[in-house]
Design goal:
The protein has 175 residues and is α+β, with helices and mostly antiparallel strands. It contains four helices and seven strands, in the order H-E-E-E-E-E-H-E-E-H-H. Strands 1-4-5 form a three-stranded antiparallel sheet, covered by helices on one side. Strands 2-3 form a two-stranded antiparallel sheet. Strands 6-7 form a two-stranded antiparallel sheet. Strand 2 and strand 3 form a beta hairpin. Helix 3 runs antiparallel to helix 4. It starts with a helix and ends with a helix. About 11% of the residues have low confidence.
Length: 175
């Protein structure tokens, strides 16, 4: 009888530990903390981005199609494929920024430059969402020093990304 009770208790401890580990690695079942609007080239998308545990998640299909990608899902994978070489990058509008106009790709614009601009715009949009989410959290807890530090870090990263984008755009304009 003691072995059965000990085995039962060991099983319970094992299951609780396994469940806690599983909860830490998956976002499935997590609570969405906020929804964020997504704007691409000044047009608001119908599908919102969400924030879970302080990280923003964007609607891949809506953003992919808005930026000229063909989006396909196969099993547990999402694939984005360029529809054509005439894709323009997005211009971030979530946060006010003084950036150069987005160059229109032409025969001198390399695909690598276009890809860099699209990637930078994605990072900028994600960082802007992180800033917005953290600012919303600070409204609920204005004295939270960790949130204030996180917000300042996000703002510095955002400014750095904007500087990288402006440098790349200026380089493209000078060609």
């Amino acid at each position: 009888m003691k072995k059965a009770v000990a085995g039962f208790i060991a099983g319970i401890v094992f299951m609780i530990g396994a469940q806690a580990f599983g909860d830490s690695i998956s976002k499935i079942g997590k609570k969405i903390q906020t929804e964020l609007s997504v704007t691409v080239d000044g047009k608001k998308l119908n599908a919102p981005a969400i924030a879970v545990d302080g990280t923003s998640y964007a609607p891949v299909r809506a953003i992919g199609e808005a930026t000229g990608y063909d989006v396909s899902v196969s099993g547990k994978s999402i694939a984005l494929k360029k529809e054509s070489a005439n894709v323009t990058s997005t211009n971030e509008t979530t946060q006010p920024a003084a950036s150069a106009p987005v160059p229109t790709p032409n025969e001198n614009t390399s695909q690598a430059t276009i890809n860099k601009l699209v990637a930078l715009n994605g990072k900028i949009a994600s960082k802007a969402a992180d800033i917005g989410f953290t600012e919303a959290q600070l409204k609920d807890d204005p004295n939270n020093a960790d949130l204030k530090a996180k917000l300042e870090k996000y703002k510095a990263e955002y400014a750095d990304l904007l500087a990288q984008k402006a440098a790349l755009e200026q380089e493209e304009l000078n060609k």
